């Protein structure tokens, strides 16, 4: 029915209707059941008014349905619908629909003018009587709803229900404006240290982080915290580094006892002692800065005589002494002493003839090493040093212990006495092997075939007392026995 009407509109309206009247209006009419072409033509005829366009399309559709019902089921009705010369063709229907829409609008305006002329002016209210608050100005949607016919209101209701069900053409409800208090909402800014010559400031409000993550709080930098918190945090980070803890205690104690001596208030980061104990240790340099040392260039830290604070020095020393009682410090200290003793034992053969004889005796008890590509390759970790050797599958644990004794007789003695222990590093969790109980067991039995990784470690107090310790876990190796039988 819109064929001739389409020919009468310009190509600009036909091709750019969505751009002129907006895709949202076209989608709203489509959600009511009309086609895209019908929606664009109706919007062009009503200057983009969605409600009037919906009313126009509904009136046209109702007229078409009445014509269909009036024609009946005979041939005469069919001839009236298909005859282009009749008065109820497409152009006539469109004209009548537009006239009816204009008539409804004129009636609405007439009623509004009549109501305004009848209502008394605001100044005519008697004295002593409170003036009634003026009615809120009707919105465009309310005015259009008053002017709509029952068919138009039905279409609007259908549009609302379809929007709620399918989300087509749904409009977002605006949030209520907050009550003005005269204070501007704060804009949080965070320095992120970005490069590229920028300011390094992250505007959380403009980036939307405060909207999507209102409960996220950016932690303060270490230098922005209180001195007490800085000292305690730095001390906690130094627990796995006993040399750094001991060095800082000596340095801070020297400054506290003799604050006027500039020698104790200057730290050169290029010295061998600093590089060995404090360099790259987390919290070491921050601890010095927390007690009022300051950086001078890139290689020095200086504590000015006017900046010496006995309270901060006392707090720093107390925090570091408390670290010495922690489990992490004790375990790390024990491991350092163990590695130092291992190195001294291995170097003992060069200064003691008796030790050299003992090692040669242990080496003579070791079986012949298989050729390359044969046997099981066994790796042994002695502190920071790693040694390896090949054994046959039927060699026993005693052969391995003799090979360990060839690297130091004291190592063998400490393992047998349980002061130190031999552990299988291929097993998790790592647990010591009872060497006295399993000396006659083969390498395959203890899980070191076709390869194995063993290590010598300081024993726990539980293992020194003769307990078997934790038997959980599994042993790696072909034909290996259960882990519970090795302890």
Automatic annotation (TrEMBL):
<feature type="domain" description="UBA">
    <location>
        <begin position="21"/>
        <end position="60"/>
    </location>
</feature>
<dbReference type="Pfam" id="PF00627">
    <property type="entry name" value="UBA"/>
</dbReference>
<dbReference type="InterPro" id="IPR003903">
    <property type="entry name" value="UIM_dom"/>
</dbReference>
<dbReference type="InterPro" id="IPR009060">
    <property type="entry name" value="UBA-like_sf"/>
</dbReference>
<dbReference type="InterPro" id="IPR015940">
    <property type="entry name" value="UBA"/>
</dbReference>
<protein>
    <recommendedName>
        <fullName>UBA domain-containing protein</fullName>
    </recommendedName>
</protein>
<dbReference type="InterPro" id="IPR036339">
    <property type="entry name" value="PUB-like_dom_sf"/>
</dbReference>
<feature type="region of interest" description="Disordered">
    <location>
        <begin position="57"/>
        <end position="196"/>
    </location>
</feature>
<feature type="compositionally biased region" description="Basic and acidic residues">
    <location>
        <begin position="86"/>
        <end position="110"/>
    </location>
</feature>
